[in-house]
UniProtKB/TrEMBL annotation:
<feature type="transmembrane region" description="Helical">
    <location>
        <begin position="269"/>
        <end position="291"/>
    </location>
</feature>
<keyword id="KW-0472">Membrane</keyword>
<dbReference type="InterPro" id="IPR051085">
    <property type="entry name" value="MB_O-acyltransferase"/>
</dbReference>
<feature type="transmembrane region" description="Helical">
    <location>
        <begin position="229"/>
        <end position="249"/>
    </location>
</feature>
<dbReference type="Pfam" id="PF03062">
    <property type="entry name" value="MBOAT"/>
</dbReference>
<feature type="transmembrane region" description="Helical">
    <location>
        <begin position="77"/>
        <end position="99"/>
    </location>
</feature>
<comment type="similarity">
    <text>Belongs to the membrane-bound acyltransferase family. HHAT subfamily.</text>
</comment>
<feature type="transmembrane region" description="Helical">
    <location>
        <begin position="43"/>
        <end position="65"/>
    </location>
</feature>
<dbReference type="GO" id="GO:0005789">
    <property type="term" value="C:endoplasmic reticulum membrane"/>
</dbReference>
<feature type="transmembrane region" description="Helical">
    <location>
        <begin position="405"/>
        <end position="423"/>
    </location>
</feature>
<keyword id="KW-0256">Endoplasmic reticulum</keyword>
<feature type="transmembrane region" description="Helical">
    <location>
        <begin position="190"/>
        <end position="208"/>
    </location>
</feature>
<dbReference type="GO" id="GO:0016746">
    <property type="term" value="F:acyltransferase activity"/>
</dbReference>
<feature type="transmembrane region" description="Helical">
    <location>
        <begin position="443"/>
        <end position="461"/>
    </location>
</feature>
<protein>
    <submittedName>
        <fullName>Hedgehog acyltransferase like, b</fullName>
    </submittedName>
</protein>
<keyword id="KW-1133">Transmembrane helix</keyword>
<dbReference type="InterPro" id="IPR004299">
    <property type="entry name" value="MBOAT_fam"/>
</dbReference>
Length: 478
């Protein structure tokens, strides 16, 4: 990693004044003579441009939530809703609030019928109205004001609202005695920390946690919350520093430059792009999750680091969306995930909804196809090696030898995951160039060295997972 970093640093330093870099590399630390990469609008929006506004809104939420939890904890969910509703109204206008309420009322009305497929169809059709004209322009006209965050807030708030309303509707279908009140849907939807940018917590979990009156904390819980807050602050500072030294998001946009880079620089770029995207998701969701933990909620966990991923089943950068898809689509249709036909149908439907959520386009379609194939190929391979004579061969092996052989297959899996997701984060051309260098032009030296290092990494991860499982089993026995 340090070797690849040195190559990327050298390329960034020597090409800072390149013409193709002018739009995304701006003046930074004047006294150190370093320019800053500004290619990621989302990161700059959160932690630079609108940092003070976001801190002000979330601080107000924490303040009112704390006062309410001390004086009248039974009404805290109502206070969350009122504050969130006022915050959305202040930032986007009453016509936008009306649009959001219309979606809530529509899906609530459909949920009263308690027909699961009808709730799904209505929700997906509503979501599709934000992906195609003339519905996009018509609904965008409901937003007041003209500021930089307007389109981001519009699509973020509407998209997550529909997913939350679908969760509410599907949970209402499962409820045997009566229906949930529409007020519960509004409390769920207008919880401000989750409203614009997620993560999505399914309604069943949110309902139980937000209506809990016992607000006592576990031992050292506040210490852990404070520690997480400090860690997020440190990571934000580190990323800001790295933006001045390595232009990992800008370099992949210049294909002419990349053709002259070394194999190590290209492989490192692909890996660091995914690591950065994980860091961004972990920090953005982590800050919001810290606020929600102060509200005595247990939000979705941060995404698993790309370095720890070697199976497609765990590949997700938004655990909230992943939990939503698994609960209502993947696990519902896939059952025990043992039948290959059921698994294929489940994965196709899951990635179909994901395509709609991300917005259908060529890159998203290719990304979805490759990841869907990878997920199913894992099941097919597991099924194939579970029959005779392969199962007998593995039974005769030691546990360590079995793990070594599996790690060889997982090594190729790891780089498949990297390449497939680089395709979605950057471009098809960049993914093709990295694959060509890693597997064809770089063969055999680059290919063997990268795969060997990856193999060692996977062995370390497997050993760590084995020890964690042993500790969990010991705790259960105690």
């Amino acid at each position: 990693m340090f070797w690849a970093t040195s190559w990327i640093f050298e390329v960034s330093s020597s090409n800072a004044n390149r013409k193709t870099f002018k739009t995304s590399v701006k003046p930074g630390w004047y006294y150190f003579g370093r320019k800053m990469e500004t290619a990621d609008f989302e990161w700059l929006m959160w932690f630079s441009t609108f940092r003070d506004h976001i801190i002000f809104a979330l601080s107000g939420h924490v303040l009112f939530a704390k006062i309410c939890s001390m004086l009248a904890p039974q009404y805290r969910s109502l206070v969350y809703m009122v504050y969130g509703l006022l915050a959305v109204w202040t930032s986007m206008g009453w016509t936008y609030v009306t649009l959001i309420l219309s979606h809530c009322i529509l899906l609530y009305s459909i949920s009263l019928v308690k027909i699961r497929w009808l709730c799904f169809v209505t929700g997906l059709c509503t979501l599709a109205t934000f992906k195609c004209e003339p519905f996009i322009s018509w609904q965008a006209g409901f937003v007041e004001g003209d500021f930089e965050l307007r389109p981001v807030f519009f699509y973020g708030g509407c998209g997550f609202t529909i997913m939350r309303c679908m969760s509410f509707a599907l949970e209402n279908c499962e409820r045997k005695d009566g229906n949930y009140n529409i007020l519960e849907l509004l409390k769920y939807n207008f919880y401000l920390p989750f409203f614009y940018f997620g993560p999505i917590m399914t309604f069943d979990k949110f309902y139980v946690q937000v209506n809990r009156c016992d607000l006592t904390r576990k031992e050292r819980e506040m210490w852990n919350i404070n520690l997480q807050g400090v860690i997020h602050l440190i990571v934000i500072i580190v990323v800001d520093i790295l933006f001045h030294f390595m232009y990992i998001l800008t370099i992949p946009t210049d294909l002419k430059l990349m053709k002259h880079l070394s194999d190590w620089a290209l492989v490192g770029l692909a890996y660091f792009n995914l690591v950065y995207d994980w860091v961004k998701a972990a920090v953005m969701f982590g800050v919001i999750n810290t606020v929600s933990r102060l509200d005595h909620l247990d939000p979705p966990k941060p995404p698993k680091c790309i370095t720890m991923l070697y199976v497609f089943a765990e590949t997700h950068f938004d655990r909230g969306i992943n939990d939503w898809l698994c609960k209502y689509v993947y696990n519902y249709l896939g059952g025990k995930h043992e039948n290959m036909v059921e698994e294929l149908v489940a994965t196709l439907c899951t990635f179909g909804i994901t395509i709609l959520w991300l917005g259908p386009c060529q890159v998203v379609l290719i990304w979805a196809f490759l990841n869907c194939f990878g997920l199913n190929f894992e099941l097919w391979t597991a099924k194939f090696f579970s029959v005779e004579p392969f199962s007998s061969f593995e039974m005769a092996m030691s546990e360590a030898m079995s793990r070594r052989i599996r790690a060889i297959f997982n090594t190729f899996n790891f780089w498949s995951i990297v390449l497939y997701n680089v395709l979605a984060l950057n471009s098809l051309d960049f993914a093709k160039l990295v694959a060509k260098r890693l597997l064809l032009k770089g063969f055999p030296i680059t290919t063997i060295l990268v795969m060997f290092v990856t193999y060692c990494l996977i062995q370390v991860i497997k050993e760590q997972e084995r020890r964690q499982n042993l500790k969990l089993n010991e705790k259960k026995l105690q």
